[in-house]
Amino acid sequence: MSENFYTQKISIHDEMPRLSAQANLFRLLLDPFFDSIHFEKESGKGLDAGAGPGILASFLTKKNPNLVWSACDISEEMVQYCKLSYPKIDWKVCDLRNLDYPDNSFDFIFNSMVLIHIQEPEKVMKEFYRVLKPGGKLLITCPNDKTFEGPPVLLEMVAKHAEIHPADRYVMEKVPGFAKDLGLTLEARTDFVASNDGNDDKPKLDYPTIHLGMMTGWSMLSFMGHPDGMQDVYSRCQSEYMSNRVRFSLKLETHLYRK
Ligand SMILES: C[S@@+](CC[C@H](N)C(=O)[O-])C[C@H]1O[C@@H](n2cnc3c(N)ncnc32)[C@H](O)[C@@H]1O
C-alpha cells in the first residue's frame, strides 16, 4: 500500500486514541450542521472517504439510515479495526488519489480531516467527482491552519508544522477553485470554530463554535510535536501553554458541493 503522508513516523495505533477523541468532539458540531442541510432527506449510497477510526462513519449511518454506507482509508490497520467494530459498513483499503470504486457510484461523499494530509489534493477532488453520481453531494471539512489565533509561540509552532508537513495545511483555501474547475456547485458553507476557553469536564457547544477545555485543546494539538524539527518549538509552546493558560482558536472549514 502506498505511503500514508498522514502518519509517517507515528504508527496509526498511536494516533487512534487522539483521532477517536477528536471525532467524538467533531460529531457535536456535525450533528446540527447535518440538520441544517437536511441530510435526513438524502438517499442512495454514501462513502466516508478517509474514515480513520470509523466513529464519524458510524455517526453517519445513525444520522441517516436511508443511505447505504461504504468507507475507505489508506491504512490497513484502521480498516481492519473498523471492519470488526462497524461490520454493517462496507470497508475497503484504498488511496483517495486512486479510488477503487466505479464511476458514478455514490450519492453522498463525506471527507473529514483528510485533505490537509494528502499530497495531490486536486487528484483526490477529480476522483471524488468521478465516483459521484450526477446530482450527488460532496461534503469536505478540514481545518485551515491560517485561521489559528493565539499567542506568537503557538502561531510559530503551527507555521513550522505547516512548513514541515509534506501536504498542504492551507488546502481548504484551494478547494473552491478545484471544485469550480470540475464544475461542482457550492451548496452550503459553514466555518466551525474550536476554541479552548471552555471546561475540561464537558465541551460546550455554541454552534458553530465548540468550547473545549485547556487540556482537551492541547491534546488536539499534540500531533504537531511528532515530526523531526518540531521538538524545540513544540516544547516552548507546551511550556508557555501550561504556565500561562494560553488561549487559541481555529476554524474548521466545511463545504458542501453538488455535481
Ligand atoms: C485525521 S484522520 C481523519 C479520520 C476521519 N475522517 C475523522 O474525521 O475522524 C486522517 C485519515 O486519513 C487517512 N489518509 C491519509 N492519506 C490518505 C490517502 N491518500 N487515502 C486514503 N486515506 C488517507 C489516514 O490514514 C487517516 O485515517
TrEMBL record:
This is Methyltransferase type 11 domain-containing protein. InterPro entries: Methyltransf_11, SAM-dependent_MTases_sf. It comes from the Bacteria. Residues 47-140 form the Methyltransferase type domain. It comes from Leptospira kobayashii. It holds the Pfam family Methyltransf_11.
